[in-house]
Amino acid sequence: AQSVAQPEDQVNVAEGNPLTVKCTYSVSGNPYLFWYVQYPNRGLQFLLKYITGDNLVKGSYGFEAEFNKSQTSFHLKKPSALVSDSALYFCAVRDRRRYGGATNKLIFGTGTLLAVQP
Amino acid sequence: ETGVTQTPRHLVMGMTNKKSLKCEQHLGHNAMYWYKQSAKKPLELMFVYSLEERVENNSVPSRFSPECPNSSHLFLHLHTLQPEDSALYLCASSQDPTGTGYEQYFGPGTRLTVT
Fold first, then answer.
1. I want to staple A91 with a disulfide (CB 3.0 to 4.6 A). Which of A45, A109, A112, B75 is the partner?
2. Cβ atoms within 10 Å of A99's Cβ, excluding its own
3. B21 and chain A: CB distance < 8 Å anywhere?
4. Which residues does chain A have with pLDDT short of 50?
């Protein structure tokens, strides 16, 4: 079965420190992986994606993620956290099953709440 | 903003009411999606429309009825809902759904409360 797991419900980090939000996946074949962020009372915003190529992907707001095939992981990272980064973060993997012509379904993790303390 | 708008942002309805949620995308995308987001649960994909044709219905109860009149608009018609249907309903769109690796763009959601 295809799935994505975010093992931490919440991550706490002090402002200025590096942050990591973990994600592991299970999918047949090559994965297409995504990170989204959700601020309070808002929809999800796309941060970055891995399709192919360089294992280190850079995205919006200074975030990056590292694809590790051997560990089936796609952890989100940022060198220096800001209080404004506090939000809910979702990892997602493209569902490779086909439904009619729509192959662009995403399977989301349960989300990790990032709390950055000043 | 992401280019996807949803109205209303908040909705309170009784179990016998009929209401509709509206989504509009200004991105030229060909696929649109409805998701349900409940506390402590993963995002639940409800419906997928590809080129205005419904291509997936994830075992959603018939009290939810989607409509996609064109590639820019998506509706979710609601009737005789239950309190457990209270949630944040998110609309999303993406480019050609037969392509690969296209991210989805989400609207701000409609916070629905069923009383």
1. A109
2. 16
3. no
4. 100-102
pLDDT of residue B100: 60
Say what the pLDDT of residue A49 is.
93
Q: How many degrees, rounded to 5, is the angle at CA A73 between CA A68 and CA A75?
A: 100
Cα-to-chain-centroid distance, residue B8: 12
* pLDDT tens, position by position, B82-91: 999 999 999 9
Backbone angles phi, psi at B101, to 5 degrees: 80, 15
Residues of A in contact with B98 (CB under 8 A): 101-104
8 Å CB contact of B2 and A45: yes
Interface contact B111, partner A, CB < 8 A? yes
What confidence score (pLDDT) does residue B84 get? 93
How would residue B50 be classed by pLDDT, with cut points 50, 70 and 90? confident
Cβ neighbours of A104 in B, within 8 Å = 31, 94, 97-100, 102, 104
Which has the closest alpha carbon to B107: A20, A65, A43, A41?
A: A43
What letter represents residue A118's amino acid?
Answer: P
3-state DSSP of A65-100: EEEECCCCEEEEEECCCCHHHCEEEEEEEECCCCEC
- pLDDT, position A103: 52
The pLDDT score that the predictor gives to residue B53 is: 75
* Mean pLDDT, all residues of chain B: 89
